[in-house]
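Ticket #4471: complex job returned nothing on first submit. Input attached below:
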Amino acid sequence: MKISILGGTGPQGRGLALRFARAGIEVAIGSREAARAADAATELGALLNPAAAAISGHDIRAAVAQADELVILAVPYSAHDATLESIKDLLVGKVLIDIAVPLAQGDPKRVAMPAAGSATEAAQALLGESIPVVGALHNVSATVLNDLEHSINCDVLVCGNDLAAKEKVIELIRKLDVAAYNCGPAESARCIEAITPILIRLNISKKVPFTHAGIRICPPDAH
Amino acid sequence: MKISILGGTGPQGRGLALRFARAGIEVAIGSREAARAADAATELGALLNPAAAAISGHDIRAAVAQADELVILAVPYSAHDATLESIKDLLVGKVLIDIAVPLAQGDPKRVAMPAAGSATEAAQALLGESIPVVGALHNVSATVLNDLEHSINCDVLVCGNDLAAKEKVIELIRKLDVAAYNCGPAESARCIEAITPILIRLNISKKVPFTHAGIRICPPDAH
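Support reply: We reran it on our side without changes. The output follows.
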C-alpha cells in the first residue's frame, strides 16, 4: 500500500509520513520543490528503523501519481484551494483526505471558515462529487505526531459524503493505533475542524496542566 | 448558593437539578406549569439523601427570580427564543447559562444552526451584551446526568464573551466533579454545540462499544 502526503515537508506532513511508514505503509511526500521533498524523505527515513516502509520525495503532481488511492492534503491552508486545482485531474479514481483547519489569519485560537462552511466542504465542491473528499486528522498535534516515543493522545473524527471512502480512511488511520470514528457527512467538518483552535487555545492558556491537548470519545464511567 | 434551571422537568434539566442539589447547591426549577415543576421538585428531592440542598418548583419567571445569579436554560430548543424573550427583564444582573443544541428537525444526528451561528450567539444577541450568556453543558448525556451511581464521562467546554461570567460558570460546573474549560468567545459554540449530534450519531451507529459517549480533553500519552 502506498499513500501520498502533499505538504509532506511541513510539521503535520512529516509526522504523518513517519507514523504511516512505521506502520508499514509506503509514503510519497509531495512538496512544491521536488528536491526539498527528496531531502525530507531521506531525513525522515533515517529516523525509522529498517523494518519501516519507504518514504520517497516528489513534486506535488508526481506524489499524487504515486498513490495507489489515498492522497493526504497537508499543505498550509493558504495553499489549500490552489493545490487542489493543480491536481484535480490526477485525483480521478482516488480519495482525497483533507486535514486542513482554516485558522483565522494571525489568530490560531479561531477559525475563519470558507463560504462552503469548512475546508472539507470547500474541497468537495472544488473537486466535484465524483472525487470523494474525507475530512480527518484535524485535531492531532504535529508535535505529538513527530514524537515517535509516545502514542497519539487523540481519537480521529472522520467525515465525508462517501461512506466507502470514509471506511477506507478509517481503516488507514487505525493502522496508527488510534480510534477513528465516522462522524457523518462533510458538513460535520464545520465542527471537527473547529475543535483544533479550541485545543490550541487551551494549550496556550496554561489553564490545562499540559500542552498538545487531544480530544477523545469516552464511554460512560464505570463504578 | 441558589441557581435556577428552566426546563427543569425535562431529562437534561432533571439530571442537572439532581447533580447540583447533591453538590449542595439549591435549585429552583422552572416549567411552564408551576404545578408540574413543584411535582418534579418533590420527585427529585426524594431521590437524594437528606444532606442534599433543596430543589423547589416554580413557573418560569418565578424560578428566574429565585436565582442568586446563575440561570440555566434547559428548555427544548423549539422554546429557546420565546423563553428568553419572556424572562429578559428578569435577567438583568444575572448570567444565563445556555445548554441548548439546535438539532435539525427530525434528525438528531445533525445541527441546524440559527442565523446567529449558534444558540449561544442567538441568546446573546437577543438579550443584549449587558446580560452575559455562557454556553456550557451541551455534550453531557441526560441519561448519564440522571444516573447518580456513576460520575460524568465528559469534560465541559464553556464559551461566551464575558470572562468573569465564564469563570463563575466554570466554578459552578466543577462542583459536579467534572473538568470545565474556557473555550473562547460565544462563537466557539458553533463547534461545541455541534459536538452533541456527532456523539448522538456515534451512539446510534453501534460503531462504538457503548452508548452515551462523552468527549474529553486529553493530555499527551505517557510512556
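The first strand of chain B starts at residue 2 and ends at 6. Closing as resolved unless it happens again.
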